[in-house]
Amino acid sequence: MPEPGGHIRDRTSLDGKVAVVTGAARGMGAEQARSLAARGAAVLLADVDAGGGRALAAELEEYGAGTAFVPADVRDPAHWETIRETALDRFGGVHVLVNNAGVVGHRRIGRITRAEWQRVMDINLKGAFLGMKTLAPDIRDAGGGSIVNVSSAAGLDQHPDPSYTASKWGLRGLTKTAAQEFGPWRIRVNSIHPGYMDTPMNDFASPALRAAKVSLLPLGRPGEAWEAGELVAFLASDAAAFITGAEIAVDGGWTSGAQATEARRMR
Ligand SMILES: NC(=O)c1ccc[n+]([C@@H]2O[C@H](COP(=O)([O-])OP(=O)(O)OC[C@H]3O[C@@H](n4cnc5c(N)ncnc54)[C@H](O)[C@@H]3O)[C@@H](O)[C@H]2O)c1
């Protein structure tokens, strides 16, 4: 019989876990790494931005569970092998993979080049595929764990950049396939769908565009990067033990009706 109150014990600790986060040098990836480290995980940071990645690794040392930075382009299978070897050599295994690295373009179907389309698809979709292909067997060997794929509200509705929309819908679907394949290995796989977040990715936006986006949000403000980080830490932990194959929005209500609101305004 469980102890009285036992059902509410804290299961969010990540003590003894090893997490890999891609695109970790800044923005949401950096906050995901902070949230994971704060709960006790050793965190391996991967990014093409070596300066930002090394600085964050130095900062995360204070949490005490261990951290490392690997310069890596998620499009390159050889870089994934380096990530894998570093995780095994330094920390003895992997339990959590966060496929967060992503880029966005700004041209619509009529103007996007094939090279621009391919770059976004390769980073946002193929990168996550390579990550799961490389690390899932190690997560299995560690006794199971959690994979979080960072899609977007654009993976639930749309974005003006067709490659961004397609890559994020693709990642949402790939998540379901992986949840089915890796469930028997005790690996949970979920996608998260951030909405309009205040990160360097949105620095291009004019004050007018930002205000227009925010006006469509029920909460009346953009998201902060840590708000996605906390969701990732929850999904990584045993508190989310029965959640797999799910798609979870962290979007201030954007996908609950912003598109409809926008469409009504345009009538
Ligand atoms: N900011 C938003 O509003 C928003 C909304 C929905 C989803 N997202 C998604 O969240 C994720 C993080 O976005 P962000 O806003 O923090 O972006 P960001 O631009 O602030 O950070 C992205 C990070 O990914 C790294 N990166 C880019 N290409 C890479 C590659 N080939 N290999 C390894 N690392 C690479 C960058 O160097 C950077 O550190 C992305 O997948 C993005 O598509 C962002």
TrEMBL record:
Keyword set, alphabetical order: Oxidoreductase
Enzyme kind, highest EC tier: oxidoreductase
Domain of life where this protein originates: Bacteria
GO MF annotations, alphabetized: androstan-3-alpha,17-beta-diol dehydrogenase (NAD+) activity
EC number(s) reported in the record: 1.1.1.53
UniProt-listed PANTHER family: 3-OXOACYL-[ACYL-CARRIER-PROTEIN] REDUCTASE, SHORT-CHAIN DEHYDROGENASES/REDUCTASES FAMILY MEMBER
Family: Belongs to the short-chain dehydrogenases/reductases (SDR) family.
Name of the protein this chain belongs to: 3alpha(Or 20beta)-hydroxysteroid dehydrogenase
